[in-house]
Amino acid sequence: MTIILRFVNSNGILTERFFAIKSVSDTTSLNLKNQISDVLVRFNLQVQNMRGQGYDGANNMHGSWNGLQTLFLKDCPYAYYVRCFAHRLQLTLVSAAKDVSDINSFFSHLDNVINMITSSPKCINELKSAQRKEIEHLLEIGERESESGANQIGNLQRAGSTRWSSHYNSVKSLIDMYAATCKVLEYLSDHSPSTRSRSEVGGVYKTITTFEFVFILHLMRRILAIADVLCQSLQKKTQDILTAMRFVRTTKTILQVLREDGWEEFLKEVKCFCSKNDIHVPDLNGSYMVGRSRDREYPTIEHHYHFDIFNVAIDFQMMELDTRFNETSIELLSFSTALDPKYSFESFNMDNICKLAEKFYPEDLSSKIFIV
Questions:
Q1: What angle (nearest 5°) sits at the alpha carbon of residue 272, between those of residues 251 and 160?
Q2: Which of 25, 113, 180, 181 is the Cys-Cys partner for 130 at CB 3.0 to 4.6 Å?
């Protein structure tokens, strides 16, 4: 465990100091708290004077019930916890989406498709050849523009555990090369050297040509595209807090609008894609009975996709954003910008400074503030 202290020194200069690397016997939140407290006491620093804390995204750190930040807040109510804005945000959003079982299965299938296609130079060449033929055909029938840079030949993108936007790029690349990918899988299912490999390819092809896979593929493209704008903006070193907060609120609003008003338009988009790629669209008014008893009535297939996947996936995204950017931290940071020294304190705002003191640090300042 690495411990770093961030403070303002006696000259009013913001300073960071590395304090210690601690070897911990276990990573329970209580043990971590005791270890940090021991280090602070050794340097004669009072825990009660802590005014902020920040950790990674592990539950034992940020948990609202027994997390490390919660334990410190019990001892020091002004030690507000603010998570790093950009710390693997898209990865945590993907993880939140995977809490929906159907979406978790989707990402597993997506990995299989990409691994199968990108595992050998021969498969990659087949994919590029299929793309080239598809582009030539679309240009002939006038469904593609011939402008510069509009018809690049690419490759499927792998999703990584550390690379920014990798899941979004992975989903987007498969949509862009979906027809070509299907042709390569068809070719492999006929020309693979063994019965086992032909069976594996056939299983993957059967999976990605289902309505469910295509539905979730487009859903994740839509959700991750919205989140990607926020992720990219938060990574900018020049980003100021107020602009970042506006991006957060805008992202939440767009997701909410998608949930409340975007179903019909989204379903139309998925059906159009299925029609272009000869994918069977089930009777959405039929009963959804997969793996269930036939002795009772169940919602329609459309109800399942709309409420059990579409709505729930968006809800998990919004819950993750609410946890990471809760109203307390947003308001705290927004008021704090009034103290930003950049551009000769251009953002100075006395009203916000007073609100910051009154709401978040009432005992740190006297009841009377004299302004000269």
A1: 50
A2: 180
How far from chain centre, in Å, is Cα 303? 25
Q: Cα separations (Å) of 90 from 55, 71, 341?
A: 17, 27, 31
For residues 350-358, average pLDDT: 92
Look at residue 371 and tell me whether its pLDDT is greater than 60.
Answer: no
Among candidate residues 225, 128, 248, 232, the one with its CA nearest the CA of residue 172: 225
Describe the crossing of helices 121-140 and 101-118 by its angle, rounded to 10 degrees. 100
Q: What pTM was computed for the model?
A: 0.81
Domain spans of the chain?
2-81, 89-323, 326-372
- pLDDT one-digit tens code per residue, 97-124: 889 999 999 999 999 999 999 888 888 8
Angle (nearest 5°) at CA 302 between 297 and 307: 90
Quote the CA–CA distance of 372 and 369 in Å, as a whole number. Answer: 10
Among 91-95, 122-126, 363-367, whose mean pLDDT is lowest? 363-367
